[in-house]
Specification:
With 841 residues, the protein is mainly alpha-helical. Helix 11 crosses helix 12. The longest helix is centred in the middle third of the chain and has 37 residues.
Length: 841
């Protein structure tokens, strides 16, 4: 028997693959005529070739590779399938049907090889959509139908008989080689047989043959729940009431949960989680770090929303399109501050198109991470390499916000908003302004005297500095610049002038305006320190931005134009948006965000529902069911209990998108009520080292804010006043007094609030300055407001011990607590008992 030599080298394997696919293709062509006679249909690959691929090859490639048989560049004829399969002088594996990864044509059109960038001219470079179409055609077997078939496909397309699919996962996306486990988040939410949290958890525990930990005792449970829901420890009286409750543990604990959910401090704790994700700060960041005077109203809106148990679908709509959907609701106008939370800056030295694009990129990615658990920036320059997010989807979502403009809207204060302290703060600013102006006046007076003497010496009339420096005066007779002042005095005048400018902007904090947006044409760019006023006619004085795919993400390299849209990979999210609750996203400026918000807040949107219930689970257990709450893509963590996630998502929608109902269901489960001590911890370290079975409750570190707030709470100094303008806690003087370069000058030093009562309010109300982080918060892992924080880090580092043992804050809290104990105790023993009861429960 003759032996057959099997291909072993990569080139041999590619050649064999090419030959095999050619035979398959030849067989399919032979059979295609009779098949079409029975079934007048075309494959997706044939439609791709006729409608997308051949037009691109004809326009971009044929002129050099085949139109003139006498001059074929590189020996590669691209006008026929045979020519492509044969390859050129440099490469044989130009096209391998069914395998775009090893087809060299993909490297060439993506410009991945510097020596083979095709087409070679930048202006002729293929768009991401064109590259995408060629890739999909190759993976579909690279069919090359005859001309009469191509003509038939185009005729049927023109008549509307053929409609190109828009990307449902079950159809087009299935051909893109995404692994089924990587697109789990896009699948419709499934109804589940099990109907309780514990049923799903117990099934996993039984499968792994692990014994769960016993339930936690009441003392541990109330401490756990109180920190979880309000971010503070329980009082000795609250502990005593729970311990003495004669009802069974579950009933007694349900009463504790209801009390905590009704506590106004619940909104402060859970609002902080949301503000981590959306990157809340009171300043704009970058080099000038301009003040955002009324951003605090958005912070308080979030807190109120959680306290009122505002349905999450309404919460979404208000933040994305409150101005379009509820224009008469001041609360909804404040809510749209979400769209401006990211860092941003525009100055006279900035390029307007770049800073405008920065806004659009920022809000597109922020919406993706916050509501869809998908970072979208990877699709800005090219189709996402791991997730079913083509570049076109990225720019279609961005087009939703292309007509969104900044504005400080007139919005009277609500009865529920805290406006106390305005007079004291304004008086403090007036004092600062008076001091700065007095110094300026003295320096100008000194300079005027020097100029007067200079004029007298020359026998000329005394005039202003600007007049004496006129270009009409001979240069040797002109007044020297800044005459009469030392270098130090010149610098002081500049610094004070800049600080007066900043103070004028910061005084906007006390005006009834909302940090908001509106829909309209894009006007000439304004400095980011300026106030953005509402135009009389939003459609006049600018232009409607046309949305394009930006080649390489470059705002100066416009590719294919796009219309507003959504994720094409989600079921029922095609271009027409044929869902029951809303129509297609309009191309007119007004209404784009409203339609998009309805798409987000639709109970059929699986990403949104899975995203939010996973976040809530994460904050209760220290880890989400999917451990990367901002990333449900292929590079994120897969859910440990996917059916549980679907059950919670479905239940959340059925229960009116209620956070408090979701809290109750999670917290009343045995999984939440288990002890953090397990009798077989050594075995679990091997069998389940990450506690993915939830066999015991994973204890967690307190956050930076919880540590500070709890110290104030235990010492009796915590001011429970809610809402209002930001307060300034005490800060290490070395940090507070360090010079900050802004606006080409120095900013005023950080100054703590004058009254101890204001300094000692909850940390969520602290003035959050992007360029000046509070070192106490920073050392205990408070995240930077520049990036969305899906999960806070927990670390153990030496500066934490120094911050607690050596700081002035700790000393003051200790003295206040000791004084309180002495005042309220008859004996030393009583004082020690109270100390441990207050501090440790």
């Amino acid at each position: 028997m003759a032996r057959i030599a099997l291909p072993t080298t990569p080139s041999q394997i590619r050649l064999a693959s090419s030959i095999a696919w050619s035979l398959v293709l030849l067989a399919s062509i032979i059979c295609s005529t009779s098949a079409r006679a029975e079934n007048d249909a075309f494959s997706e690959g044939e439609k791709l070739f006729a409608l997308n691929v051949k037009p691109v090859l004809a326009e971009k490639c044929f002129s050099c590779h085949g139109d003139d048989p006498k001059e074929i560049e590189g020996g590669l004829d691209m006008t026929t399938l045979e020519g492509l399969l044969k390859g050129g002088d440099a490469f044989e594996d130009v096209l391998i049907p069914g395998d775009s990864e090893f087809s060299f044509i993909m490297e060439a059109i993506r410009w991945e090889d510097p020596d083979f960038e095709m087409p070679p001219k930048e202006n002729d470079r293929l768009s991401e959509e064109q590259i995408w179409a060629i890739r999909d055609w190759i993976d579909a077997g690279a069919p090359w139908p005859e001309e009469h078939t191509v003509a038939a496909i185009r005729d049927q397309y023109a008549e509307g008989v053929i409609v190109q699919t828009s990307g449902a996962l079950s159809e087009e996306w299935a051909n893109r080689r995404y692994k089924e486990e990587d697109i789990w988040a896009y699948q419709p939410i499934k109804d589940t047989e099990l109907k309780t949290v514990d049923a799903f958890i117990q099934r996993r525990i039984d499968l792994e043959q692990i014994d769960p930990a016993p339930l936690a005792d009441r003392r541990a449970l109330i401490r756990r729940a109180t920190f979880d829901l309000i971010g503070l420890p329980p009082t000795p009286q609250e502990i005593a009431n729970f311990l003495s409750d004669e009802r069974d543990d579950e009933q007694a604990f349900a009463t504790v949960i209801d009390r905590l959910l009704a506590d106004p401090r619940y909104g402060e704790q859970w609002g902080r989680h949301w503000l981590d994700v959306v990157r809340y700060a009171d300043t704009a960041g970058y080099s000038n770090d301009y003040e955002r005077p009324t951003a605090w109203r958005y912070r308080d809106y979030v807190i109120r929303s959680f306290n009122r148990d505002k349905p999450y679908d309404r919460f979404i709509k208000e933040q994305i399109a409150g101005d379009e959907l509820y224009p008469e609701d001041i609360e909804a106008l404040i809510a749209t501050g979400f769209l401006r939370m990211g860092p941003w800056e525009h100055t006279s030295m900035s390029v307007a198109r770049l800073t405008r694009q920065q806004v659009l990129d920022d809000v597109t990615d922020s919406v993706g991470q916050t509501f869809l658990s998908h970072p979208l920036q990877c699709a800005r320059c090219h189709d996402h390499k791991f997730d079913p997010i083509p570049t076109k989807d990225y720019y279609r979502i961005q087009a939703v916000f292309a007509t969104t403009q900044f504005v400080e809207r007139d919005a009277q204060y609500l009865d529920t908003e805290n406006t106390s302290g305005f007079e004291e703060e304004i008086a403090l600013y007036d004092k600062r302004v008076a001091t700065l102006k007095e110094t300026q006046k003295a320096l100008r007076k000194k300079q005027a005297a020097a100029i007067g003497a200079w004029c007298e010496e020359r026998g000329i009339p005394v005039a202003s500095e600007s007049e004496l420096r006129s270009e009409d005066i001979p240069e040797d007779q002109r007044l020297p610049r800044n005459y009469g002042l030392t270098n130090q005095e010149i610098g002081l005048l500049k610094v004070q002038g800049k600080n007066l400018q900043r103070i004028n902007g910061e005084l906007g904090r006390y005006e009834p305006t909302a940090f908001s947006v509106y829909s309209g044409v894009t006007r000439p760019a304004k400095n980011s320190s300026a106030k953005f006023s509402m135009p009389q006619d939003p459609m006049e004085g600018g232009e409607i931005e046309a949305s394009h795919i930006l080649t390489g993400g470059d705002p100066f390299s416009l590719g294919e134009s796009v219309t507003p849209g959504v994720f094409s990979a989600l079921p029922d999210s095609n271009d027409a948006l044929q869902a029951s609750e809303f129509n297609s996203i309009p191309e007119s400026p007004d209404g784009r965000r409203a339609a998009f918000a309805k798409w987000l807040a639709n109970s059929e949107n699986p990403l949104v529902l899975r995203s939010i219930v996973n976040r809530v689970w994460h904050y209760h257990f220290g880890r989400g069911i999917a451990a990367t709450p901002n990333n449900f893509g292929a590079m994120g963590k897969k859910p440990t209990h996917p059916e549980l996630l679907d059950y919670l998502a479905g239940s959340f929608a059925e229960n009116g998108w209620s956070f408090k109902t979701l809290h109750r269901e999670i917290m009343l489960s045995k999984a939440y009520r288990r002890s953090s001590n397990h009798p077989q911890r050594n075995r679990l370290a091997n069998d389940d080292p990450n506690n993915e079975s939830y066999a015991y409750f994973q204890s967690r570190r307190l956050s930076a804010e919880e540590i500070r707030d709890s110290m104030l709470f235990v010492s009796g100094e915590l001011n429970s006043e809610a809402g209002g303008i930001p307060i300034r806690p005490e800060m290490d003087l070395e940090v507070a007094l360090q010079p900050r370069q802004v606006m080409g000058s120095f900013a005023l030093s950080y100054e703590a609030s004058q009254n101890p009562e204001d300094r000692n309010r909850r940390s969520i109300y602290a003035h959050k300055i992007r360029s000046l982080r509070n070192p106490f918060f920073e050392v205990f892992n408070q995240p930077s407001p520049d990036l969305s924080c899906e999960a806070r880090d927990a670390s153990t580092v030496t500066p934490q011990a120094f911050s607690l043992f050596n700081s002035q804050d700790t000393l003051k809290r200790s003295i206040a607590l000791a004084h309180s104990l002495i005042q309220n105790s008859d004996t030393g023993k009583t004082a020690i008992t109270q100390l441990f009861s207050k501090a440790y429960g």
